[in-house]
Amino acid sequence: MRESSHLSSVIPLAGTGLRLAVSRGSETAGAQPTAVDTPRGAAPETVGRILLYAARTPDDGLVEHLKSRGWSVLVARSAHEIGRLIKPATICAGLVDMASFAVRDLPALEASLRQQQVGWIALANPERLADPTVRRLIRHYCFDYVKIPVANATIDYLIGHAYGMMNLCDADMPPDTTAVSDDEMVGTCEAMQQLFRTIRKVANTDASVFISGESGTGKELTALAIHERSPRRKAPFIPINCGAIPHHLLQSELFGYERGAFTGANQRKIGRVEAANGGTLFLDEIGDLPMESQASLLRFLQEGKIERLGGHESIAVDVRIISATHVDLEDAMRDGRFRSDLFHRLCVLRVDEPPLRARGKDIELLAHHILGKFKTDNARKLRGFTPSAIEAMYNYHWPGNVRELINRVRRAIVMAEGKLICADDLDLANFSEQQTVSLAQAREAAEKRAIEAALLRHRNRLNEAATDLGISRVTLYRLMGAHGLRDTSSDDKADGKSPSAGGREARE
Ligand SMILES: Nc1ncnc2c1ncn2[C@@H]1O[C@H](COP(=O)(O)OP(=O)(O)OP(=O)(O)O)[C@@H](O)[C@H]1O
Ligand SMILES: [Mg+2]
Q1: Which atom of ligand 1 is nearest to the CA of 183?
Q2: Could you tell me the maximum CA-CA distance found in the chain, to the nearest angstrom?
Q3: Backbone torsions φ then ψ of 38, nearest 5 degrees
Q4: Which fold has domain 190-353?
Q5: Does domain 19-178 sit in CATH 3.40.50.2300?
Q6: Nearest CA to ligand 1 atom 5
Q7: Which CATH fold would you assign to the domain 439-507?
Q8: Strand extents, DSSP E, 98-155
Q9: What is the pLDDT of residues 77-134, one digit of tens each?
């Protein structure tokens, strides 16, 4: 089967950038500075790794030690001097002695710390660490901090690490020439690998596919990927958004009409079903299909023929149907809003899109992918994301999934003032303060993630998910309610919806 670019589980970014980064990172991150071509006490201009040491009263002994470890040390006694010493295109490590600066120096210091080409490590005493501004500066702009007094070896380790991380950010960026295809599907986590395997399998058949998933998870991209890998790939892929077309027009959009079929029908129009002949018809937001169109669609699926509005001829059409929705069709069927006979025709094969929050490391991978795609929206050369931006992306819930990630990164590209996108640029500053998460909250979040992943693996089959999780089905059902993973509004109604009575969540 042809390997389509839509299904690269490791995208060019990961294939080149990350591998490169790992090797560069392993040389530098956490390592001691290399070959000391700078003799003890040599001038800071000498080649080597640059360390910016910011302290109102620098420790001469420390400076000597750092030089002996191969660092070209630049000493700044004020925020102004830091600004003067930082070179726009030069990556360096930074050591800032918070304890030596006065509180009134902090605003100016913040502007300097924001410079993205410096990987900062903070030195602080307990008194300074109690100051909320200092705490915030460390959280937002530093890789790490250490309480003084501290052994030189610890400082060696930390600044080596910060320097390595800065280089890693640099190497993470795909080369400028990287062409990023518009409909490339990015994913390396287990849930996405499973999705790619499913896509490959279902592409080989002609059976109807139903794609379910939250808004913005990539349902349309998946439908296109299935088509592009199917034997129908040379024929059209015709999408129709059943939710976006006014109900009274839907029928003619789907099946077309003959000239004179109604006032204003001046010429024959071919409907979307007919236009997809030989190819794939993608019925998006199928849950919004009105009852009348549901009946016509069912008739077409049963007979393989359509009739244009105002026409008398039955036309045989050969299409493969893929449908998708973000609404719960099982709910809709129970409420009588969706025909179950149509659902069973549409859902011969089912594909579940994992929500972004369940994709682990892929969030970061996707963010870099999007940055690579849109970085030219900002004239400044953006290198990547700050550690706090990455942390915020992991903490955030992503209700709008990949589409929301795209929007936030695009906004950040425009808003970013430094070379790295920070949490604030993504409008996620509130999600980067991991230290405000209590252990109980962390446990709760982990529990929810584990339940979501198990439900996804077992397509909401409670018995199997519960076995996987090592809990009873009743406990799982209760926890799903507690975590907002099921609709609890009907709990106080008839007991027919409890798990033991075979409610809708029980799909076994
Ligand atoms: N795995 C992925 N890799 C790269 N881009 C993706 C991925 N998944 C989704 N996208 C991008 O996210 C955006 C939303 O995807 P898509 O329109 O397929 O989602 P959807 O589930 O159909 O959304 P909705 O429910 O709102 O219709 C698109 O720009 C798509 O290219
Ligand atoms: Mg869609």
Answers
A1: 31
A2: 96
A3: -95, 115
A4: Rossmann fold (3.40.50)
A5: yes
A6: 185
A7: Arc Repressor Mutant, subunit A (1.10.10)
A8: 118-124, 142-147
A9: 998 888 888 876 678 899 999 999 988 888 888 877 876 678 889 999 999 888 888 8
